[in-house]
Amino acid sequence: MNFFAMLSEAFLKILFSTSSPSFYSIATSSLFILGLVGIFRKCGIKWWMALIPCVRDYQLGRAAGREDEGRFAAVMQGVLALIALLYLFAPQDPSASERFYDFLSIVELVVQLVYGIYIIRVYIGLDEVFSQKPRWIILWIFLDWLPALLFGWDKQIQPQWTVSDMENEVSHYFSNQKAAVLDQGLTVNLEERTATEFFKKKYLLRDIHMYIKPGHMVLLLGGSGAGKTTYLNAVNGYEKAKAEVVLNGRNMYKDYKDMQYEIGFVPQLDLMRGSDTVYRTLMDAAALRLPADFSKAERQARVEEVMKIFGLTPVQKNLVSKLSGGQRKRLSIAMEFISNPSLFILDEPDSGLDGVMARELFQQLRQIADQGKIIIVITHTPDRVIDLFDDVIVLAKDANRTGRLAYFGPIQDARTFFGKERMEEIVKTINRKEEGGEGRADEFILKYAEVQHG
Q1: Are residue 101 and residue 224 in the same domain, yes or no?
Q2: CB 384 within 8 A of CB 424
Q3: Which of 191, 259, 297, 371 is buried most, with the most CB atoms less than 10 Å from its CB?
Q4: What is the span of the domain harbouring residue 21?
């Protein structure tokens, strides 16, 4: 068999997703593709995309409102295509060839299993879009061509919305109410934060506007993938967005070099050396974060002041590796506090701490906020310390998986707005159904936008 003949056979395997392009497999695959043509036409997707391997998986995910799952399934299908090509290049030696085939078979099996998981999620989404009962998933798994044909060509089975509807239902609705820029406090007017995926512009965040007063301690809530970290990175200037971020009257993006130490950022995982003492760790932080014209005596005085504030003076000679979990958290915060920033951002500072230690830590943060600082905190256990916060930011994914502002304001008003008493219940309300939530994100994004619009 010449190279082009082998390549043709491999293409048939890829096109029809089967190891042997028999008449049955070709027939069922053709019927499946015909069904996808109908589904794509109903959902507002170009029908010919059903003919292209990998692309059809991604577009099917879009039709199902499961774009991320479709994208991953498309990648797995691409990996399977690569494996099919690798089978053509087995070693000539029989024993080596056998090991080669065994290895590829194992890899292929694993990839097929992963692909199966994600494509099933897409099929579940299709059932929801076409208002069909969950039991259809059985047919999708064992006879995918049959439900594909019915969904695609039965006139009585119609989608509740098209891809265009899903992408525009919430995304086009903006508050158009920018936050006021004042001389004190933090103003965030974020129009959009984008990235490019699959040669397509993807919106990570859109339409987020707020003004946070000095002295306020703010909780940042949102489910997985809602854009919490992306939002914080945009605020602190680490990943710039199409936005205006003004802290105490100064534009963060325009004056980033001069203002970078105006913001203290404490990540979830600390990067401290275990072989250094507490005192040495803070002195190193002072050398990095304090102005160059500070003398050694001034740096020492600042370190001693910060150790006293965070209760680290008794353990200043201890190695970092010997500290308790609570002490390490306080040290990581103290390192950022050295430069006396106006804005403090903390990503899960209570991770790994019990209730008592977590509360002590948040009480210290409350004391810092009471000095006129702004503090924004992500925590997955907010209700045990919620009484220490002033406001809450709630980010949620809209129908197009874009992070949007579902609420910003006082804690008690948030309870009324969502009809929930606990913050963890609010997160569950806006999470998607497949994530164990109620799937009401769009409802509250629109509600908040309407409130802002007045």
Answers
A1: no
A2: no
A3: 259
A4: 3-158
The set of long-range contacts for 26-34, using a CB threshold of 8 Å and a minimum separation of 24, is: 28/145, 29/145, 31/145, 31/148, 31/149, 32/144, 32/145, 32/148, 34/148, 34/149, 34/152
- Which tokens belong to 94? 């029989």
Same domain membership, residue 415 and residue 274: yes
Q: What is the dihedral of CA 417, 422, 427, 428, to 10 degrees?
A: -110
**Average pLDDT rounded to a whole number, residues 90-117:** 87
CA distance 427 to 417: 13
Amino acid at the residue 330: R
As for how many domains the chain has, the answer is 2
Q: 436: burial class by Cβ within 10 Å (0-12, 13-18, 19+)? A: exposed
Based on the fold, state whether residues 326 and 426 are members of the same structural domain. yes
DSSP symbol at 291: -
Residues 355 and 379: beta-carbon distance below 8 Å: no
- Asked if residue 167 is part of any domain, the answer here is no
Q: Are residues 195 and 76 in the same domain?
A: no
Q: How far apart are CA 66 and CA 341, in angstroms?
A: 41
Domain shared by 238 and 304, yes or no = yes
**Do 222 and 287 have their domain in common?**
yes
Residue recorded with tokens 């993938």: 225
Helices (H), 274-346: 278-289, 296-309, 325-337
- Is 176 among the domain residues? no
Tell me, yes or no, whether 400 and 280 share the same domain: yes
- Answer yes or no: is pLDDT of 451 > 90: no
Backbone torsions φ then ψ of 208, nearest 5 degrees: -120, 110
Q: What is the per-residue pLDDT across 150-180, written as a single tens digit (0 to 9) for each? A: 999 999 999 988 887 665 554 556 666 788 8
Token pair of 146, please? 């049959």
**Angle, to 10 degrees, between the axis of helix 3-16 and the axis of helix 67-86?**
150
Least confident window among 25-39, 208-222, 253-267, 336-350: 253-267
